[in-house]
Amino acid sequence: MLDIKDLVSGYGSVRILNGVSLKVERGQIVALLGGNGTGKSTLLKAVSGLIWPWSGSITFDGKRIDGLRPDRIVRLGLVQVTQGKEAFPGMTVQENLRLGAYAVRDRAKTAAALERVYGYFPVLKEKRHELSGTLSGGQLQMVCVGRGLMSSPSMIMLDEPSAALAPQVVLDIFRTIHRIARDGMTVLIVEQNVRMALLLAHYGYVLKDGVIEIEGSAERLMHDDNVRLSYLGGTVANREAQL
Amino acid sequence: MDYVIDLVIIGLSVGMVYALVALGISLIFSGLDIVHFAHGEIYMLGAFIGLMIFQKLALPYVPALLLAIVVTGLIGVLIERLFYRRLTRAGGGYTVAGMGMIISGFGMSIVLQNIAFLIWGAKPLPFPVPFGMPVEVGNLTLPMSYVWIVSAGLLIMVGLHLLLRRTMLGLAMRAVAHNKDIAYLSGINVPAMISLTFGVGCALGAAAGVLIGPINYVQVQMGLGVLIKAFAAAVVGGFGSLPGAVLGGLLVGVVESLGAGFISGTYKDVYAFILLVLVLMVKPSGILGVEARMKA
Predict the structure, then answer these.
(1) What superfamily would CATH give domain A2-77+153-242?
(2) CB–CB of A19/A2 below 8 Å?
(3) Chain B contacts of A90, Cβ < 8 Å?
(4) How far is A160 from chain B (nearest CA, A)?
(5) Which of residues 145-164 of B touch A (CB under 8 A)?
(6) B180-195, pLDDT tens digit by residue?
(7) A111-138: b (≥16 Cβ within 10 Å) or e
(8) What ipTM was predicted for this assembly?
(9) Which of these CATH numbers, 1.10.3470, 1.10.443, 1.10.10, 3.40.50, describes B2-121+146-294?
(10) Using one digit for the tens of pLDDT, what is the confidence trace for A138-178?
């Protein structure tokens, strides 16, 4: 569904991605892991069109999308939810969500999408007429994910949906992402919470210094010594002791 | 007492004109992160275009006003597309790149003034609109031109409010003003929205120009004075805040009118700035000043 080949990109003259290749199959949940500053967010931004790809190719649903304007990529059915729970604070929850369906001109479709989002996040329905500036962190994240779902995309990219949230809220968000994927959405998720992400995902990539360092099924990565050592807080000795 | 009420009414109608120009400046600032220093010339251009439509096409005043608003709005879209977009792409607002934006605004103002000079000459032109007899309200006599300015100004403001608050297009414009990345990821064509925002800002300036035309002359130099007053109005109300621009405009108009009536007409242009200094001393963000984060 999404096929990235040798992608090079960065900000200004600073090169962040040094040739990333990554694949996401339809219906899969793929986790993109890695430490701070390894280029995870940059990769998502390059895919969604917020920054220019310098070289390489990005193919979505059989179409080249590198170099397209972000709103065009959204119209093709690929949506990114950015990090940092950015909603429009001066607008109500419902207005925020409706904006997500800006590209959809069909009222009935928008109404159906809105009901679907309220189905995933019932608390948003209760708060639909409140300004999003008054919401809690978890609710804001729901608004952001919900806004991403409003255009009924075929694939969604989530940038650290669990960042700066209480553990119980993180669990809720992950459960909902699981439900969304089960309903047929393809998901690429960037996470610092490696354990949770690997529990959720089918396949995983580990990004380091702008290139893919390790890739494999979530099962395999979970038991990979390097991954355990670097990201899961386990040690090799620990693992041997378990065996 | 009647004298005071007369002064307030004059102040409100002139203030309405300041408010419209200030609204345009604030709207452009919130959407494009640029302070548009050529907005006085847009106001002048609007007045001339309105006058030409009124005289050469012999249309009545109201259609001339509406047509001038549309035409000037389109000219604004063109200016943004051809000149400002290249600069905003390199950054804007308070960055170093934003400085280029400010300079080019001044440049644009000189260019537009000279274009207007070449077309219409330096002589002030009258805008003779037969408004009819003054209306009597109680024991007050209101000249129709003032009634026109205030009611047309209010209608335009209500229209802008409905556009921004009640339509998807307005919602998208506000989204772009607040966060362009998120607007993009919501599927909004951000460059088109920026052009639209700039065009609407210019249309507001044109409305002000056509409304003031009949009580002042229309002339090439008319933009500068209004620009400075409108900036004062925008800052008094809270820069970037649309309700603030309206409140600031009306306040500047009324203070100016009362000052001219009670103290001295010679210093008419000073009162707006005394008000500005006083407001900034008490509340530096302006009366309805908002955090930049809340501007959407």
Answers:
(1) P-loop containing nucleotide triphosphate hydrolases (3.40.50.300)
(2) no
(3) 174, 178, 294-296
(4) 16
(5) none
(6) 899 999 999 999 999 9
(7) eebbebbbebbeebeebeeebbeebeeb
(8) 0.89
(9) 1.10.3470
(10) 999 999 999 999 999 999 999 999 888 888 999 999 999 99
